[in-house]
């Protein structure tokens, strides 16, 4: 969680707890990139698709900034989900090493609609979530020294 108003933090924990079917108590701290907001890091364990359910639960609060990363598992690609107020959600599959994977049909559709190099550049940036990354980067920096909570769900 990159940023949340303090009053929403308990709701974030309750939403995570509902998805993970376990109580969640995050270690919140002030977000220096936005001092009126709080931030928290956590790692979680759950069956494939849990990351999508976490993101869906958190999207109810449109003022949040967050990322959810689900590592790949046997037979299932990983996933990266980012949410930024006013921009909405960005979602992409990830490879075993964490790189974004853009499906060939999406690239073919982009190539079929591009009329010049600028439209291709803009389209590739959209497919890669560049605008979400740019908006979240100042918030990520402050998480490097923060503690991390581990959340798990027994399947």
TrEMBL record:
InterPro entries for this protein: DUF3145 (IPR021491)
Q: Name one Pfam family in it.
A: DUF3145
Name listed for the protein in its UniProt record:
Uncharacterized protein DUF3145
Q: Please name the source species.
A: Stackebrandtia albiflava
